[in-house]
Every structure is written in structure tokens, then in C-alpha cells.
Design brief:
This protein is α+β, with helices and mostly antiparallel strands and 435 residues long. Helices cover 42% and strands 17% of the residues. The chain contains 14 helices and ten strands. The chain has a six-stranded mixed beta sheet with strand order 5-6-7-8-9-10, sandwiched between helices. Helix 5 crosses helix 12. The longest helix has 31 residues. The N terminus and C terminus are likely disordered.
Length: 435
């Protein structure tokens, strides 16, 4: 038998073992690869998870409300807790809460309610301060940015300008789209935008600087509704004021505002009386030297408004600065009116018995630090329901307390508003209350 053609039994046996080993190795590699493929999420799954995470983070700064004892209590979403998968809420009564997304979406405050509370100055100061802190944190973490760009041919800038054009087209349906495109892409106009995570345009302003005349004309302004409630509109306008004064060197902002946004511009410091010299913004036409709006474009139904920029006011963080000043002023005033000097008194030792009942009653005047804080026995509420005998161990005192509680229960039962607690609710009439 030739060595190149035939094989011995030992060689055949070795080749069989090698094939079996290779087959086992291939099967093992398939199992490992399939398990690794199952454990690693697909790109679509990653994108969905990332989208949900972004939606949860973007809820920060939104207002919610709840009803308690017939009164509406406003709260603010301050963040998202990844451990409990719930949103953190701070209410105007300083109570904190954690709620899930389903309840959050049901209790979101409508924009009309928020606008009414701000217009009537009924928005709690605490929530305004917390909202500004949320925006500050988003800016520091890079989730919220304000950028100034123009038509410079950069790809990223051109994409943002097109997105801003689409935003203006949605929010300004009465303005022709061709006119919006010309203004957004005009080389004489510039833009300031609100960018979410360096990719989504959620608001912006188109303006044109007239450097020789010393003013800036605001052509278009729009912010998405959910961002406007968070205070992004005010912050966007403040960034424009800071940039126009420091970088453009102008002293005034002018705009032709529609009737439905006049209130907003009034809140931002604009007035209907233009303090800038008339010949600087109106100009004169040729050849008859007749007055004409050579610089400012006044539209039918629009109202010309202006804002004079303060030379030293830091517009970029005006809201945060005023909140801190107001807060410190209140704290200083409380310290001046307070009699205490931040003294910490020890706690009360009740010396409870086996049943958990204190061995001896504690009088109000014996609480450490209460008299030093200015408390007096004749204040309202002290011993309001006093019994005949102050001793807690006598039978007469127990009878007096029993008689008082019975009379109190009878008054509650006879009250006309106590009917829901006396009559059994009918399931057909009120099914929601029986669930």
C-alpha cells in the first residue's frame, strides 16, 4: 500500500476525532455567537430606549397640578428618578412627590392656566426659582444650548436654518413660506436658536442688525409650546439682548409685533413708545424727503414696539440673579425680625410606658425654646379645647373628654355637607367613585 494513497486505522481514527472536535467547536461557537447576539440589543432597540430617556429628561421644567381639599396646587417637574422610574415633583406647598409617567401626563397643567397664573402674578415664587435652576442645569449639562449663526455655508448651520424655517412655517401660518425662506437665508439676517442636545431646534429668532443706526430689528420669533412653558422664550430673548449689546454694539431692539404676541413683548421689556430717535429707524425716502419705513418693516395689523438695552445689566442670567437677590433679601428680613439665633434645643424625652403612652403629660410651655421664640399662653389655639380638670388620670376628666367628643361628632353628623358620608353612594350614578 502506498503511503500517499492508503491510510492506516490509527490515522482514520485520529481524523475522525479531529472532525468531531471541529464539529463540537463550531457548534459551541454558534451557541456563543447566538447568545451574544441575543444579549446585545439591536440598534432599533437602543434608539427606542434613548428616545424614551430623552422624553423623560425633557419633562423637567413642566408644570403639573393636583386638587387637594377643593384647592388647586401647582407643582414643577424637577427631574426623573432612574431607580424608581418616576418623575420628581415639587409642589408650591414645599411637598415632594414621585409619580409615574401615566399620572404625569394626566396632570400636566395646560398652557392657558400657566399664562393666567403668570399674568395675574399668582405663580409661586418657589416654582419660578426651581424652573430657572432646571434650565441652568440643562445648559451646564449640554442638553440645552443657545447658538448664534448665519448663512455661512457650513453644513450643520444650514441644516439648523432649514429646521428653523420649518418651525417658523408651523407657528406663523399666515406668513408666506417663500417670504420666511428669504428672511432665514438672507445674508443680512442672523439667527439665534434654542438647540436640544445639539441637534433639535426648538425655538429661534431671526433678526437683522443695523449697526450704523444702533438698533436690531426682530423679524421672526417662535418657540415650541412645551419649551415656551418652561421659560425658554424668556431666556432666548435675554441671550439676544446680551449678544446684541455686547457683540453687535447696538442700544435698541425694534420689532413689528402681531396683536397676539404684544403681551409677551411687554413682559420682555418692550414698549409701544419708541425711545430711539425717529430719524434713526424711520429714515427719509428719495426724492421728496417724505417719511418712510426704510429700515423697519411695518405690516398690516402689526404694532411697532421697542426695547432699550441697559448698558450694564447681565441679561443672560437676569432671572436667576433677581431670584437670588429676592431670596437673600427675604432671608435677611426674616433674620432681622426673628428673635432666635439659630439655637438648637434638645429633643423632648417622653419616657414612654410599655403601651407607648407617655408616663406623664408634657405641657406646651415646657417645650424647650418655645418661650424664647416669643410664644405666650394667650396666643390663638392654646388650650382651645380645655377640659374642667387638667389631670389626665381622674375619671371626671375622662367623662368630660367623652362628652366633648360626642358633642363634636354630633355637630359633624348634623352638618349639611356631611351627606356623602351618611348616605350610601349609588353605583349607577357615580361609578368612578366606587372603583
Amino acid at each position: 500500500m502506498n503511503a500517499g494513497v492508503g491510510e492506516t486505522k490509527k490515522q482514520k481514527k485520529g481524523k475522525g476525532r479531529q472532525k468531531a472536535s471541529n464539529r463540537t467547536r463550531s457548534i459551541y461557537s454558534c451557541v456563543v455567537s447566538s447568545s451574544a447576539h441575543e444579549s446585545s440589543p439591536s440598534p432599533d432597540e437602543v434608539s427606542i430606549v434613548e428616545k424614551v430617556k430623552r422624553e423623560n429628561e425633557d419633562m423637567a421644567g413642566r408644570y403639573v397640578f393636583k386638587m387637594f381639599c377643593g384647592e388647586r396646587i401647582i407643582g414643577l417637574v424637577t427631574g426623573y428618578d432612574n431607580e424608581t422610574s418616576k418623575f420628581k415633583i415639587v409642589y408650591e406647598d414645599c411637598n415632594n412627590d414621585l409619580i409615574d409617567k401615566e399620572i404625569l401626563l394626566r396632570t400636566l397643567a395646560p398652557p392657558t392656566l400657566i399664562d393666567w397664573m403668570f399674568d395675574s402674578h399668582r405663580m409661586p415664587r418657589l416654582l419660578c426659582i426651581l424652573q430657572q435652576k432646571v434650565l441652568d442645569d440643562e445648559e451646564q449639562e449640554g442638553r440645552l444650548g443657545f447658538v448664534f449663526i448665519e448663512n455661512d455655508g457650513v453644513d450643520e448651520h444650514m441644516i439648523w436654518l432649514i429646521e428653523l424655517k420649518n418651525l417658523f412655517s408651523r407657528h406663523l401660518p399666515h406668513v408666506p413660506k417663500e417670504y420666511i425662506v428669504r428672511r432665514v437665508l438672507d445674508l443680512n439676517h442672523k439667527s439665534v436658536m434654542v438647540i436640544r442636545r445639539n441637534q433639535d431646534v426648538v425655538g429661534g429668532i431671526i433678526y437683522r442688525p443695523f449697526l450704523s443706526q444702533g438698533f436690531v430689528e426682530i423679524a421672526f420669533f417662535a418657540v415650541m409650546a412645551n419649551e415656551l412653558i418652561k421659560g425658554c422664550g424668556t431666556r432666548l430673548m435675554n441671550h439676544l439682548k446680551q449678544h446684541a449689546r455686547d457683540m453687535e454694539g447696538v442700544t435698541h431692539l425694534l420689532t413689528c409685533a402681531d396683536s397676539n404676541v404684544v403681551d409677551y413683548f411687554l413682559k420682555q421689556g418692550f414698549t409701544k413708545e419708541i425711545t430711539l430717535e425717529k430719524d434713526r429707524w424711520q429714515g427719509y425716502g428719495e426724492p421728496f424727503d417724505l417719511p418712510c419705513n426704510r429700515y423697519i418693516k411695518v405690516y398690516d395689523g402689526g404694532i411697532l414696539m421697542g426695547c432699550e438695552l441697559h448698558p450694564k445689566l447681565p441679561y443672560s442670567y437676569t432671572t436667576t440673579m433677581t431670584s437670588h437677590q429676592r431670596q437673600h433679601a427675604i432671608i435677611e428680613r426674616i433674620r432681622e425680625a426673628s428673635n432666635s439665633e439659630n439655637i438648637v434645643y434638645p429633643g423632648i424625652d417622653f419616657q414612654k410606658e410599655e403601651a407607648g403612652i407617655p408616663s406623664c403629660p408634657i405641657k406646651v410651655e415646657d417645650i424647650p425654646g418655645l418661650k424664647e421664640a416669643g410664644w405666650t399662653p394667650d396666643q390663638y389655639g392654646h388650650s382651645r379645647f380645655k377640659t374642667e380638670n387638667d389631670s389626665a388620670d381622674t375619671a371626671s376628666n375622662q367623662e368630660s373628654i367623652t362628652a366633648f367628643m360626642r358633642s363634636l361628632l354630633k355637630q359633624i353628623y348634623d352638618h349639611p355637607d356631611a351627606w356623602p358620608f351618611k348616605d350610601r353612594l349609588i353605583l349607577i350614578m357615580r361609578p368612578a367613585t366606587m372603583m
